[in-house]
Design a protein that fits this description.
about 70 residues, four-stranded mixed beta sheet, 2 helices, globular
């Protein structure tokens, strides 16, 4: 079952965050969980960045740390 949501918080039940074309201009996101699917109007990058900010980081900061560790 697919549900439309305005906001989404990544949880341990989140299996995938997949980009999905909404129309010719905008890209949204399909989020897969064990028993549900959600469609959001935000890009996957925005959802991931919000999850990082919740824990005091940013998606850009995580990318920099990966480069430093490699």
């Amino acid at each position: 079952m697919t549900l439309l949501k305005k906001e989404y918080e990544i949880t341990p039940f989140t299996l995938a965050v997949i980009p999905e074309r909404i129309d010719d201009i905008r890209t949204g996101t399909r989020v897969l969980e064990e028993h549900n699917q959600y469609v959001l109007r935000y890009s996957p990058r925005k959802i991931m960045d919000n999850a990082c900010k919740f824990f005091g980081s940013s998606l850009r900061g995580l990318k920099v740390m990966v480069v430093i560790k490699i």
